[in-house]
Amino acid sequence: MFKDTQIYGLRAVIEAVHAGKDIQKVFMQKGLQGALFKELEGVLRNANIPVSYVPYEKLNKLTRENHQGVVAQIAPVSFQPLESTIDTLVASEVNPLILILDEVSDVRNFGAILRTAECVGVHAVIFPDKGSAPVNADTVKTSAGAVFNIPLIKVAHLKDAIYYLQASGISVIAATEKTDSDLYKVNMSGPSAILMGSEGRGISPALLKLVEHKAAIPMRGQIGSLNVSVAAAVFLYEALRQRLNQ
């Protein structure tokens, strides 16, 4: 379905990085040697692109082409720049609703969140280039194609993104259990960004220190937390409810 989401061959991958392609991850054969291989390693390291060293058989499963020991996965969609995307939103007549994902790493969770975000009318989704689920064919399928309808912004540091949102007049609300503040008492009717944490550790402490508001979903059962995609849906639809009632 997405044949154009793979690049293979040492020189081809090097040129793709130089051309600014949105490379998600590179699979490289274990024990590969040679000057071109070393050059590729350096290019990938400088571009902060994740690399997995795998057996030759793994690469053969990824593609039947002559891969020369290297297969790169690229995103089926283009990512948008943070500053110009936010600036355009703020300058328009819309009431911005942004979603920030702090290293949501499961593809199914990521795709499900994007599907809900698109249904709610989220204007952009921001996530880090490291630690996040890849945007690939599985993401497209799980999101029911929502990846094509919502701006995706991949950044090096979420801290900088949060600072930029705040400087642009957008309030950041963290979805966290580490607060007594009830979700339904937090105002999200104005320009807002909802920050969701990863499946394992939640929102990083460094990011929690930056937000204006922290909010928790009321829980009455014995299990103390929800799946991140479900929690994101609860927060997003509460934000939508508040906006519909304006």
Quick gist of this model?
By secondary structure, the protein is an alpha/beta fold.
- Morphology call: elongated
For the biggest sheet, the summary is: 6 strands, parallel
What is the count of structural domains?
2
Task: State the CATH architecture of the largest domain.
Answer: 3-Layer(aba) Sandwich
How far apart the termini lie comes to: 43 Å
Beta-strand content: 15-25%
CATH superfamily label of the largest domain: SPOUT methyltransferase, trefoil knot domain
CATH topology of the largest domain: Alpha/beta knot
* Overall pLDDT: 92
Q: How would you portray this structure in words?
A:
- The chain has 246 residues and is α/β, with parallel strands linked by helices.
- The protein has two domains: 3-74, 60s Ribosomal Protein L30, Chain: A (2-Layer Sandwich); 82-244, SPOUT methyltransferase, trefoil knot domain (Alpha/beta knot, 3-Layer(aba) Sandwich), CATH 3.40.1280.
- Helix content is 36%, strand content 19%.
- The protein contains nine helices and ten strands.
- It has helices spanning 10-18, 35-46, 56-62, 82-91, 107-120, 137-142, 158-167, 205-208, 228-244; strands at residues 6-8, 23-29, 51-54, 70-74, 97-101, 124-128, 152-155, 171-175, 192-196, 213-215.
- The chain has a six-stranded parallel sheet, sandwiched between helices. The chain has a four-stranded mixed sheet with strand order 1-4-2-3.
- Helix 5 links the parallel strand 5 and strand 6 (124-128).
- Helix 1 (10-18) packs parallel to helix 2 (35-46) and helix 5 packs parallel to helix 9 (228-244).
- The longest helix is centred in the C-terminal third of the chain and has 17 residues, at 228-244.
- The chain starts with 5 loop residues before the first strand and ends with a helix.
- The mean pLDDT is 92.
